[in-house]
Amino acid sequence: MYKYDEYDQQMVDARVAEFADQVKRRLAGEITEDQFKPLRLMNGLYLQLHAYMLRVAVPYGTLDSRQMRMLAHIARKYDRDYGHFTTRQNIQYNWIKLEDAPAILADLASVEMHAIQTSGNCIRNISSDQWAGAAADELTDPRPWAELLRQWSSFHPEFSYLPRKFKIAVIAAEEDRAAMRLHDIGIQIVEKDGGHGAAFYVGGGMGRTPMIAPLIKDFVPLDDLLSYTEACLRVYNRYGRRDNIYKARIKILIHELGVDEYRRQVEDEFAHVKSLGIDPPKAEFDRIAAQFAMQPLDASAPDVIDRTDPDFAVWVDQNVAAHKVSGHAIVNISLKPLGGIPGDASSAQIDLMADLAERYSHDELRVTHAQNIVLPHVRKADLFPIWQALDAADLATPNLDLISDIIACPGLDYCSLANARSIPVAQKIAQRFADPLRQRDLGELKLKISGCINACGHHHAGHIGILGVDRKGTENYQLLLGGSGAEDVSLGTITGPGFDEDGIVDAIERVTDKYLSERTDGERFVDTYRRVGMAPFKEAIYG
Amino acid sequence: MVEHLQADGEEPCVTLDAFLEQSNATAVRLESDEDARALIPFLDRLKLIEVAFPKFRDGRGYSSGRILREAGFTGELRAQGDVLVDQIGYLKRCGFDSFASEKDLNPADVEAAWSRWPEHYQGAADGAVPIWKLRHG
């Protein structure tokens, strides 16, 4: 994976010094909270209901054991001994003191990490496929392109005061594991005539006006990747709406201009930007790509898994995925134990996952947008001891992509924007469907919960989505069906009137019962929904 | 060192509309929602372009600055308005070379904020050599 050279380190160190100075000026009262806010936000520091929250960047979700251990250290030393992995492949800490923030950033910088641009109206952390470099179905590893974009977007002088935040994802497989088309820019590395290029989807997003990004250009030569991205951003920075925060995302600009007009403006801008010489030479891409290239894995490693232990076999079937090299596998560690908080991990659990990565997974871990952790390069022969270690730490719940593998935002328990709690609802649903056989019978079922209309919990993209709203001072939960953040991307539809906290759990059970009675062989929940439509489900829910 | 220009004795800026109607003026003010490219035919005769930053969050002026420099403008490019210490580095990179802040900026803070960044990842309008070029010579 990518290692900093002296330039990268110097940038991060400068940022630590800068932020220490900004915090000092704020604590001394030299700058107001209003002036400090955009500065702290660009360093990932939010003011929440009870304390500051610090969001640490995990670029394209990749980290090594040393970095993972630092995340545990921060949880222990500066927070309440746990961290929360997020839907943007980052980690956030919910109980941070402002005066500790500079020291935390310095600790992060010592392991080539930072919190740069994890919030604010700038280009956020670049996200990617959590199985990059390991997936059997990928065209190439997308992360070198993501790293190129990371460097280009870091402290970008023109795009640090955009109309609104800006999220970019890069993938290189047909199977979309990164919700690529629900990003402001989704880039898919594709092949044409034997060469690779980038398909640009621009203007996707969730929030209160969810939109699936339309295709703006099917094949951008990779030598033009940064110029083309810069052109997309410049048109947005100049013409994106700034009069209304809820209409400021690029999706609204493209919706109002029309896809063809936006594309025309980008093409005009690109013709100019390409002449500026901002694209690095191939040698720079090669320098980055070489660092992601691994020692070749041993393709003659044993391919057989001893499935004697039935619990182990269940976990293998549910949480282990195919690796591109024979004899190897991708381990998905669920951070969704029964009754737990989706995405939370204690410092001890984080340390354990770091140890396993160092010992068994070529020192690599990934954070997924579904708030789980991945050990990407594991020998099949090592799966059993890995499972034993995970099981002992409550990290071996065999529920990947099942109904209890819930994405949930922090909700009203933490977040000052939330209208309703998300975590207790996630816990009640997991309890209701606690029987593992029942979960497996329901099959792939992506359930996502947001505690407000901003949709951090991706409810629009859930096969089943839940949106918490405030109705006359009480928490109310709307139910959505039929969304997807994958390659079959779609937006969920609201079923009808909302429910209270227990009512929503009952409603979901009526929906899954209806699915079981309607499904045909091999149909996932979302397939059945798409075939039979909303009406039978509505009938089942509301009678 | 950053200059803090005084308005005394210099030609006042005219609005973009006024400039486009009678273009004898050599100083023009561009509001944040105005198209910098409207000035491109006249850059040779302009001495000063003042770009408005009505709120520090309004980042349109950064694009205006770069567009003007990319089109070859060599006169004074001034950022006027809600310009804060921590934005001056980005403004300089986008081609601005003078700053008329409504805030009382401490020159030492401005200098410290700017000099903290020895190199930059990306090319912009300040002529700085991007890090990728330093890596590859």
CATH superfamily of chain B: Aldolase class I
Count of separate structural domains of chain B:
1
Helicity range of the residues of chain B?
A: 25-40%
**How is the main sheet of chain A built?**
5 strands, antiparallel
Q: What's the CATH architecture of the largest domain in chain A?
A: 2-Layer Sandwich
- Strand content of chain B is 15-25%
Shape of chain B: globular
Q: Helix amount of chain A, in percent? A: 25-40%
Describe, in plain words, how this protein is organized in 3D.
The complex is a heterodimer of chains A (543) and B (137). With 543 residues, chain A is α+β, with helices and mostly antiparallel strands. Chain A folds into 4 domains: 6-109, Sulfite Reductase Hemoprotein, domain 2, CATH 3.90.480; 127-287, Sulfite Reductase Hemoprotein, domain 1, CATH 3.30.413; 310-392, Alpha-Beta Plaits, CATH 3.30.70.3340; 407-542, 2-Layer Sandwich (Sulfite Reductase Hemoprotein, domain 1), CATH 3.30.413.10. Helices cover 37% and strands 18% of the residues of chain A. Chain B has 137 residues and is α/β, with parallel strands linked by helices. Chain B has one domain (14-136): Aldolase class I (TIM Barrel, Alpha-Beta Barrel). Chain B is 28% helix and 16% strand. Chain B contains 5 helices and 5 strands. Chain B has a 5-stranded parallel β-sheet with strand order 1-2-3-4-5. The longest helix of chain B has 11 residues, at 60-70. Chain B is globular and about 50 Å long. The model of chain B is unreliable at 1-7 (pLDDT under 50). Classes of the chains: A alpha+beta (543), B alpha/beta (137). Chains A and B meet through helix 1, helix 2, helix 6 and helix 9 of A and helix 2, helix 3, helix 4 and helix 5 of B.
